[in-house]
Design a protein that fits this description.
Elements (H helix, E strand, L loop, with lengths): L1 H19 L5 E13 L10 E13 L2 E13 L8 E14 L2 E4 L2 E18 L7 E16 L2 E14 L9 E15 L2
Antiparallel strand pairs: 1-2, 1-9, 2-3, 3-4, 4-6, 5-6, 6-7, 7-8, 8-9
């Protein structure tokens, strides 16, 4: 009985210590703008295009973030159709791992790497081209320059995704592009 009581006290004490060490979760909102640059065979079908979007992040530790993102690309395709506009919608979730270095004063440098998975939808405006959705993944590198709750953010993403032709109903092919963005990160707490 005495051994059970000691184990219970030790368990409760361990739980109290673990909860005291739990990191403070800090939500962030990150609007961005940039460009999407098709690579490889995808350049045969699309031009470089502007991109805007927003990320929502949760800082689990200063060096670890959980990230969700939504982006819109106003692209033009190279298919032989009169209406060549296409809306590309990108959505994903991922993780970022980084460092925090003081730059002096209140400024911090926060370089990071990240990875995630998600989806991508191509919504063609030409009636003869079918809307297609497929899975995607990404790897990212970037940095933030932070002062207080606000940071300037630069990010480069290499996106890899399956692509289905809007003309044929054939199988999907693996394609990639590069996303370059500049944004602001605002830490809500």
């Amino acid at each position: 009985m005495r051994g059970m009581a000691l184990m219970l006290v030790a368990l409760l004490a361990g739980t109290a210590v673990a909860s005291a060490q739990r990191p403070r979760v800090r939500p962030e909102i990150r609007p961005y703008a940039g460009a999407l640059i098709p690579t490889g065979d995808l350049r045969n079908f699309f031009h470089d295009a502007p991109m805007v979007g927003v990320q929502a992040a949760v800082e689990l530790k200063p060096s670890l973030h959980l990230v969700g993102a939504f982006g819109w690309v106003a692209a033009q395709n190279r298919f032989p159709v009169a209406q060549d506009n296409v809306n590309v919608f990108k959505y994903d979730v991922g993780m970022e791992l980084g460092l925090v270095r003081s730059l002096g004063g209140a400024w911090e440098l926060r370089p990071f790497i990240g990875a995630g998975i998600g989806g991508r939808t191509y919504d063609y405006q030409a009636a003869s081209l079918a809307t297609k959705t497929c899975t995607s993944g990404y790897g990212a590198v970037g940095t933030e320059f932070q002062i207080a709750r606000t940071a300037l953010r630069l990010e480069a993403r290499h996106n890899v995704f399956c692509y289905r032709s809007p003309i044929t109903s054939g199988s999907s092919q693996t394609r990639s592009d590069i996303g370059l963005t500049f944004g602001v990160a605002y830490h809500l707490r």
